[in-house]
Amino acid sequence: MSGKAEDRSSKKKKEKRQLILEAAVQEFARKGYHNTRMEEIAQTAGIGKGTIYEYFESKLKLFQAMMEDSLKAYFISLEEKGQKPVTMEQRLTKLVEAHISFCQANKELTRVVFWDPEAFDSELRDWTVSIRAEKLQRTIDLLKEGIDRGEVRSDLDIRIMSEIVLHTLGAFWYPLIVEGWNVDPGVIARHYTEIIMNGIKNNTGN
Amino acid sequence: MSGKAEDRSSKKKKEKRQLILEAAVQEFARKGYHNTRMEEIAQTAGIGKGTIYEYFESKLKLFQAMMEDSLKAYFISLEEKGQKPVTMEQRLTKLVEAHISFCQANKELTRVVFWDPEAFDSELRDWTVSIRAEKLQRTIDLLKEGIDRGEVRSDLDIRIMSEIVLHTLGAFWYPLIVEGWNVDPGVIARHYTEIIMNGIKNNTGN
Amino acid sequence: MSGKAEDRSSKKKKEKRQLILEAAVQEFARKGYHNTRMEEIAQTAGIGKGTIYEYFESKLKLFQAMMEDSLKAYFISLEEKGQKPVTMEQRLTKLVEAHISFCQANKELTRVVFWDPEAFDSELRDWTVSIRAEKLQRTIDLLKEGIDRGEVRSDLDIRIMSEIVLHTLGAFWYPLIVEGWNVDPGVIARHYTEIIMNGIKNNTGN
Amino acid sequence: MSGKAEDRSSKKKKEKRQLILEAAVQEFARKGYHNTRMEEIAQTAGIGKGTIYEYFESKLKLFQAMMEDSLKAYFISLEEKGQKPVTMEQRLTKLVEAHISFCQANKELTRVVFWDPEAFDSELRDWTVSIRAEKLQRTIDLLKEGIDRGEVRSDLDIRIMSEIVLHTLGAFWYPLIVEGWNVDPGVIARHYTEIIMNGIKNNTGN
DNA sequence: CATGAATGAGACTTCATTCAT
DNA sequence: AATGAATGAAGTCTCATTCAT
Lengths: 206, 206, 206, 206
Fold this sequence. Notes:
Chain A is mostly helical. Helices cover about 70% and strands about 0% of the residues of chain A. In chain A, helix 2 (about 15-30) crosses helix 5 (about 60-80), helix 2 packs across helix 7 and helix 5 (about 60-80) packs across helix 6 (about 90-105). The first copy, chain A, is elongated. Chains A and B meet through helix 8, helix 9, helix 10 and helix 11 of A and helix 8, helix 9, helix 10 and helix 11 of B. The structure holds a DNA duplex (21 and 21 nucleotides).
């Protein structure tokens, strides 16, 4: 009783918005956008159905807000852990490590964020596209710098190279989240970097 | 009139099923499962709403059938073009080429098939998971053979390596389908193989 | 093959109408009007769905025709067995006997005919009402004659008396048809007559 | 305006369920189960279509609930008026009187409740059968007691006798409800008892 | 602010009926 | 005459959103 009362009082203004967003992540992650009912989100959040509408215009807006917040957290997480390194190899390693760590720490969240959202809303789709474009541009910039420094090959099409480097990052989401792989981010990061930098060809002359 | 008559006669039995499947691919691709109404599929197919139910039990069954048929076509397409080559490098190249060609030739279809389907149905999800597992196993087998032949490095974790090799294939779907890239499959295939086999590191000592 | 062909050829014009009616009785009896689909009737009759419409305008008309035919058969059956007797007691006995025999011989049919049809159609309802009115009038006439002959009490309201005499006839339908009572019509008939004529009161002074 | 407001406030919680049930009785009685649309029930109840589903899972469940409630009311009504009498004759008289009174007071309701429901649902049918079995058993018990006391003949088959006594009760439903007979329950009750107890035979030696 | 009962647009699905073969 | 593939009107039920309390 008092516990619930305390919960109530501690959930002041802005905090309730957060509460809803967390419930939304959980529910949307488990069942997808269309199979999640507003009432379920409300229940998970421990509030009334109508209250959600005090903080979000509609189901779609709630979903969008959740995506934005989540991606923001993702990017912050990447930046936090990826500042110091200098060589391309170190950068990539740190990037992957940060990515894997984030995924492991926010399983439910990434299940939604890295889902290619069903085309249920053009506005949302446009936004997703722009996020993707930004990610790609960052990758291109990264590789360009690598080329300038002589660390990266200059004989390949930079766009194609970037698409591969970027997209490969997602290779781990499925085993990590869905299958529950419980590997060390460092191990994956080293494999990723090794392959992307040196390929899988056997050069030992063996 | 004669045109319609011809249509009728040519759309015998099995052909109408195909007609519906094609309409379904188109509509599901454009708007996703939940935003596509059975009536729209019917209209696109040029038939009545009820007719769909003569061929498919329900909307979900139609979707499943479409997925199965599409993936079957995809795998057949891969196998057709990937028989002759012997070295690992040649195999990967052919594989990517076939993948890209299929995507380009079936833009709408791949938009649905390679979407991670929203968790709207557990049966469908299980099936998707099993498809994924099969793809991964094939990749693992491919790389094992390469290791045995001394073409592929043996110092990397084969599972992680396989996940990367497999997943990277999907790197081109977005630019090809959504952005409408119109590149030569061969060029992409060569880049893919080059990077996966040799990495992006500059080894020229430049 | 030849068997089916023979069936076909032997089912000439009017016979196919009968075939459909028999199938209709069976299906309507088992599942009721609304839960019986035209296709099921067609299948039971061993013909095509569209053929029914060659003989009956609509599902409702088919139902009506089935009811009419069935009731006609019922009344004929009653008359056949109820001609000779002279006293009221003998008449009632014969009547019940004929009624029971008909029910036992046409279980499926009576299941439909004696159902109070759901008010799905005003025309049908009117017809049912008129049938009922006729039955009642016959009963009234029967009892009037009995009164005139001094066989029946004259101190009771003839309408109420008639309603009871008539309605009681239906008391046996449920155990006979639904529960599958397998009793001798004569036994029931004697009980009915005994009770209706003499009541259940113990007059033995016991 | 104030009227509507009053309605609202008076229709709290449980009362709306009742409101829906009353509307259901009315509509089902008038048009039968299959010809009654949920929307019509809603309109009659003066509420929205979806509201019904807040109180009842489905159309069928609503129908079942209505039947159960109605029968409960019927049995209560019978028991209320049938306590004091001692002789068999008095009992039967009271029973019929109560039955008739209930029918007259709940015309619409009895139109549904005493309809032999079309076999649209096996669960409902089973329930109906069990109700019937219970009614019959009560009648058998009643007559057994009468036999023990020497009030009822012991030379008749008790099952057949009971079926007749029970079923005859229904003889008045049609004229009362459908034809709108407006007779005194006492008159009918006396006729019923007189006939069932003493029969219709003229014993005056006239 | 918070609530949840009430709402009704909208989607799937059924099935009597039609009509070209 | 017989057929059964095709049709689309109609009905049940869901669920995002509103609004009186």
